[in-house]
Amino acid sequence: MILIALFVLLKGADYLVDGSADLARFLRVSPIVVGLTIMAFGTSLPEFIISFFSALNGQSDIAIGNIVGSNIANLALIVGIGAIVAKNIKVRSTSLMYEMPFLVVSSFLLLILADDFFIFGKDTLTLSRFDGMVLLLVFVIFMSYIFSSIKEQRKTVTKEFSIEFKNKNPLWKNILFVVGGLAALIAGGRIFTLYAGQLADLAGLSGSFIGLTIAALGTSLPELAATITALWKKQGDIALGNIVGSNIFNILFVLGITSMIRPITIDSIILSVDAIVMIFISLVFLVFATKDTNINWTEGTSLLMMYVIYIIFVFWRM
After folding, report:
1. What are the pLDDT digits (tens) for 40-67?
2. pTM of this structure
3. How many angstroms separate the CA atoms of 283 and 266, rounded?
4. Which of 3, 50, 61, 126 is the most exposed place for a label (fewest CB within 10 A)?
5. Run of H or E including 127
């Protein structure tokens, strides 16, 4: 079943990238916008499903661990592998330069809201309903910025991007590819995570460990498949837009909705160690991507090594 899930993931990613690229052309916006919105939302659905139901079942460690672990995997593992495979990921979109700092801000915001001492002076680590409202408000602000940039990009996108598409499909077909690709990605990720989770339960692993590793890796598979496929098709903007957008969606939308439904109690280790690692890797990614507007092989290797070291540490403290 795991092999079937991987096959579904890869085929879904293939259709999703093709449909997204053509949809961007039809809407006269840069591919980065599609990556930041449609693809990011779609590939974040597995994280939403896992975190939402984990929180409802009282498994807060899995809910928060899944998001933090997934964001670390997206930036360190997936971007790292992508840069190694592609040799160089070029950041062509000027708009991405403005969205990447927003990712770092969102990560810091999660850290501040989760530690109630910063706001209320309480010695608790909880994402309350109020915190969820704040996260969702910031998410609305982010999406408002994205949609306002769409209007501007319609005027300049032809000058900024010179992408030629071999298959110029009609709109209905592009939408079908995007929806079908997203469905396949979600189904494949869900199947993989389900069976991997059962193996973890049999081994008697902790909730935080499952969330930070198995659930995080499983729910990051759609991002991995979409990123590698996008890079193979020379769509670096879609690849990076998907990663940045997905991480922002995970923090602001997924945790916002989840904590609004049921407050999430956070393990002190996750907040004091794993969340800090997430912020650090976000900062490293920001520096790599903006330094010379590309992420090269060496930087990709550095990101991948950071992830390997982090996973070894998680296993060590288990």
Report:
1. 777 777 777 777 777 777 777 878 888 9
2. 0.79
3. 23
4. 3
5. strand 126-127
